[in-house]
């Protein structure tokens, strides 16, 4: 089945306009600040933006090699990356790249987030306790205990639009992403992420919507690993809905390799679950309607 491109409107634009993603609009701050290609300049710009909100325009193609954590996002801040990379320097101690506090609202555009390390914690690349929009961006090669790439905490709202989540790892759940709040993933690719326990691609225990996206070649590789593609667990309130999406070629140590559903609900709407190992959905404590094998 060829996935159609009509079910969702996702518009990412530059400063002074509006981001619309799955029905939620975020209006950028009126101010704009160009950030030179310097980690210190970026940290200072975020600190200043926390006072009144701002749109930070990064140096095109710059690699901001961080040796210390950036300030947490505590206001409405838009980062227009222009293809820049925010990465933890290889010689630096472990820290995540970005954190959005409960009062913060971050929109991240055209930016790569890499090599974040929240070992022993949640959200290796980005931890979101507030509101986060990730658009046309790449989240890769980050690590944590939970949510290697992006972690949406309790009470948070996370939108990932037309982005790539790849090569992230965790020692527990949610190799690519983990959600404890309200998360939407649209027109995005979640690929080659690894968890040792549940959800190599995505782990969810709250409200997760996946639209026109692919979850492929992820792994739940530890001795108890299940749900190489997606793991939905945490009680009856955990809901995952896939619309016009594909879950394929994921693997787990134990069945199922595609989608693991514990006591919550998973709905497949015009979606494909195919060629996962050892099974697609068979072996879940709770059946995934419409998933065969």
Automatic annotation (TrEMBL):
Keyword Signal among UniProt keywords: yes
Keywords: Signal
Top-level taxon: Bacteria
Annotated InterPro entries: Pectin_lyase_fold/virulence
Signal peptide feature range: 1-25
Identification of the protein by name: Right-handed parallel beta-helix repeat-containing protein
Source taxonomy: Bacteria, Bacillati, Actinomycetota, Actinomycetes, Kitasatosporales
């Amino acid at each position: 089945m060829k996935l159609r491109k009509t079910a969702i409107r996702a518009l990412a634009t530059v400063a002074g306009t509006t981001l619309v993603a799955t029905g939620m609009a975020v209006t950028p701050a009126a101010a704009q600040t160009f950030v030179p290609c310097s980690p210190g300049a970026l940290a200072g710009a975020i600190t200043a933006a926390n006072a009144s909100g701002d749109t930070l325009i990064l140096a095109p193609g710059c690699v901001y090699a961080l040796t210390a954590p950036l300030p947490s996002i505590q206001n409405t801040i838009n980062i227009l990356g222009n293809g820049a990379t925010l990465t933890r320097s290889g010689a630096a101690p472990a820290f995540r790249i970005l954190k959005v506090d409960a009062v913060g609202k971050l929109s991240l555009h055209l930016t790569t987030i890499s090599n974040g390390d929240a070992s022993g914690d949640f959200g290796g690349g980005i931890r979101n306790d507030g509101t986060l929009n990730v658009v046309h961006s790449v989240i890769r090669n980050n690590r944590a205990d939970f949510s290697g790439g992006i972690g949406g905490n309790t009470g948070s709202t996370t939108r990932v639009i037309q982005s790539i989540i790849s090569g992230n790892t965790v020692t527990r759940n949610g190799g690519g992403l983990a959600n404890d709040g309200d998360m939407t993933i649209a027109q995005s690719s979640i690929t080659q992420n690894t968890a040792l326990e549940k959800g190599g691609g995505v782990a969810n225990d709250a409200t997760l919507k996946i639209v026109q996206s692919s979850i492929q070649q992820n792994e739940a590789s530890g001795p108890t690993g299940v749900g190489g593609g997606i793991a939905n667990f945490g009680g009856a309130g955990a809901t995952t809905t896939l619309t016009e999406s594909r879950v394929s070629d994921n693997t787990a140590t134990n069945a199922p390799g595609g989608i693991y559903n514990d006591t919550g609900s998973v709905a497949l709407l015009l979606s494909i679950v195919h060629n996962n190992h050892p099974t697609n959905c068979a072996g879940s404590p709770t059946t995934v309607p419409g998933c065969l094998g």
